[in-house]
């Protein structure tokens, strides 16, 4: 008798694509179809919803516990909130510049609104408006 090898659960883009493909199924059926289940010694199938949900969050690059994901490098992740410092400055921070793949020397035009600041990168886009 040959034992059936269980496939590894889907992750990342493959997981997101499969979930979209299975939109007509219940969440438990989606988790099972994506490989998030185990079979107990008694032969009972158990769907692991927590691992499924965590894999979905990771695939969407959503961090709930504040830990840096994947690459193991330290530093802060972007929270999309900043506070005016005591000296009146706004510090954007490296998490944002890394996410936008900005390099030292990149220049921006600043436009001020009533309660917002808009940055427009100056380079080859200078001719467009």
UniProtKB/TrEMBL annotation:
Q: Name one GO cellular component term.
A: protein-DNA complex
UniProt KW Cell inner membrane keyword: no
**Sorted alphabetically, which InterPro entries does this protein's record hold?**
AbrB-like, SpoVT-AbrB_dom
Record domain SpoVT-AbrB: where: 79-124
Provide the alphabetized UniProt keywords.
DNA-binding
Q: Which Pfam families match?
A: AbrB-like
Molecular function as annotated in GO: DNA-binding transcription repressor activity; transcription cis-regulatory region binding
Task: Tell me the PANTHER family matching this sequence.
Answer: SLL0359 PROTEIN (PTHR42182:SF1)
Its protein name is AbrB family transcriptional regulator
Which organism encodes this protein? Answer: Thermocoleostomius sinensis A174
